[in-house]
Amino acid sequence: MPSAPDTLSLISKCTVLPHHKSSMDDLKLSVSDLPMLSCHYIQKGALFSRPPISIDSLLSILKRSLSQTLSQFPPLAGRLRTDSDGYIYITCNDAGVDFFHASATHLSVRDIISPLHVPDSVKSFFAFDRTVSYRGHFMPILAVQVTELADGVFIGCSCNHSVTDGTSFWNFFNTFAELSRGVNKISKQPDFTRNSVLISPAVLPLPAGGPKVTFNENEPLSERIFSFSREAILKIKAKANNKKWIENSGIGSAVELMGKQSNDTYLNHNNGNMMTAILETLFKTAAKPQEMETNGVSAVAIQAAAEISSFQSLCALLWRAVTRARKLNPTKTTTFRMAVNCRTRLNPKLDPLYFGNAIQSIPTYASAGDVTSRDLRWCAEQLNKNVVAHNDTTVRRFVNDWEANPRCFPLGNFDGASMTMGSSPRFPMYDNDFGWGRPVAVRSGRGNKFDGKISAFPGREGGGSVDLEVVLAPETMAGIESDSEFMQFVCN
User: Fold this and answer.
1) Residue 303's pLDDT is what?
2) Per-residue model confidence as pLDDT tens digits over 337-356
3) Is 91 helix (H, G, I), strand (E, B) or coil?
4) Beta bridge partners of 10
């Protein structure tokens, strides 16, 4: 279809069906899935250099591998269904997903990654713009858009948020990439069981026509990717833990990795015992013998529990900068929300690759005066206490509270003093090699963005580097960009 030379052109659209017919039963939405019905579709994608094949060959490969991937993830090719009792299910009916081919050859890879702020053009790389997840009753649960650039290609996926969280989304995306590059057997098989405390008899009451998002979709926003090197992250962590940062010291990172292992999907899948053995060896060889004789791994666990993590330290740094930039009354209560993965916090644990939403949002509250006047460690401690305390008992209490008052998740910044951290720097976003190399960058669409929405990505160089996708009111963004405590650690 025709378009102006400086806008994206939609070249084609088709439906991709699963390679094999599904025999999977309907999957009931859980107490973590149902609140997401009022959220936009997840929109995440990867920017690549141009592949060494024609675009027609590329599209053919991607359609074929997407079809194969849908056979491994039957719910993504289905639709939502509400029964006569008000329960909502994913019916795995092989209805298929949308596949779009678009062209934006007036744009180069540099045009996407070089600007200080994320350009608006990125939003056009995703289908189902600002589509509410309840619409999965009437339209595909997933859409893939492949956009040609002058010297690259962007592969964007839009997925119903009541069907997947970040863990499930990236497992799908990684599998899609694996099958595209010709693997014979996928490395991470999703788990579709529905037999945990998350499956509830409670019914979520919904308005006629379904819920709407709970924030202003049209407010002016500024978006920027702030990159933090491994060295910067370790310095922030050392500051939060009141320790002197020592270059090339692996012990602190190893302690944190040991502490994370029990709550990390990707460390737990297949290689958990190996990781434990590696870390134990590291400690035994790096520490004094008498320091390691306090019951082996339990000594490591004690140290890890007492230590504020690098990510909590980074969140505290951002919390302080944004609160200063907002110029709030010192008595105003601020909120920092962090999404936590409940798969391994439950007892018994869910499979690390449990498919669906298994996340809960942990709020931490503090007055603006405390956040800005106390030190980084104090702010990080507030976050740390809540994350450490979020165990099986806490998860079940969240479930019971929701069952007593079923509701959609109120996403947004309603009081001008809130921040919401989503995604995770441990998601394997740069493992998506479709056959011609790793992504140049990872970007997201317009979905679920409001003043104070933050998403954490791994840095492309790996090794513990982190990118924060920060969405703020323009004047607040300008404030943190001139905040010396924050910007001294930013490497871009």
Assistant:
1) 44
2) 999 999 999 999 999 999 99
3) strand
4) 102
Contact 238, 319 (CB under 8 A): no
Peptide bond into 348 cis (omega under 30): yes
Q: What's the confidence (pLDDT) of residue 163?
A: 98
Give the range among 60-69, 179-188, 279-288, 455-464 with minimum mean pLDDT: 279-288
For residue 174, the SS3 value is helix
Predicted pLDDT at 291:
35
- If phi > 0 it is left, if psi is from -120 to 50 it is alpha, else beta; for residue 106 that is alpha
Any idea what DSSP says for residue 25? P
Question: Does the structure show a pLDDT above 80 at 234?
Answer: yes
Q: Who wins on pLDDT, 129 or 291?
A: 129
> Confidence class of residue 294 from pLDDT cuts 50, 70 and 90?
very low
Beta pairing, strands 453-458 & 466-472:
antiparallel
Cβ(420)–Cβ(455) below 8 Å:
no
**Residue 456 is inside which H or E element, if any?**
strand 453-458
> Amino acid letter at 71?
S
Taking residues 331-340, what's their average pLDDT? Answer: 98
CB within 8 A of 365, min separation 6: which ones?
333, 334, 335
Token readout for 198 is: 């998350």
- Closest to 452 in 3D by CA, of 482, 490, 412, 483: 412
pLDDT for 284: 41
Q: pLDDT band for position 202 (50/70/90)? A: very high
For residue 208, what are its two tokens?
């006629």
DSSP three-state, residue 398: helix
Start-to-end CA distance of the chain, whole Å, equals: 38
DSSP code of 488? Answer: T
Instruction: Report which of 134, 112, 167, 152 is spatially closest to residue 339, judged by C-alpha positions.
Output: 167
DSSP code of residue 129: T
Query: How many Å apart are CA 162 and CA 159, to the nearest integer?
Result: 9
9-16: strand order across its sheet: 9-16, 97-104, 142-149, 152-159, 42-49, 441-444
User: Whose CA is closest to 153, among 77, 79, 58?
Assistant: 58
User: What separation in angstroms does the CA of 183 have from each of 55, 61, 68, 440?
Assistant: 21, 13, 11, 22
Q: What letter does residue 201 receive in the DSSP assignment?
A: S
- Distance between CA atoms of 36 and 407, rounded to whole angstroms? 10
- Residue 256: which pLDDT band, with cuts at 50, 70 and 90? low
pLDDT averaged over every residue in the chain: 90
Strand pairing of 441-444 and 222-228? Answer: unpaired
Give residue 162's pLDDT: 98
Identify whether the C-beta of residue 9 lies closer than 8 Å to the C-beta of residue 3. yes
Q: CA angle at residue 122 from 116 to 128, to 5 degrees?
A: 150
> Torsions phi, psi of 316, nearest 5?
-65, -40
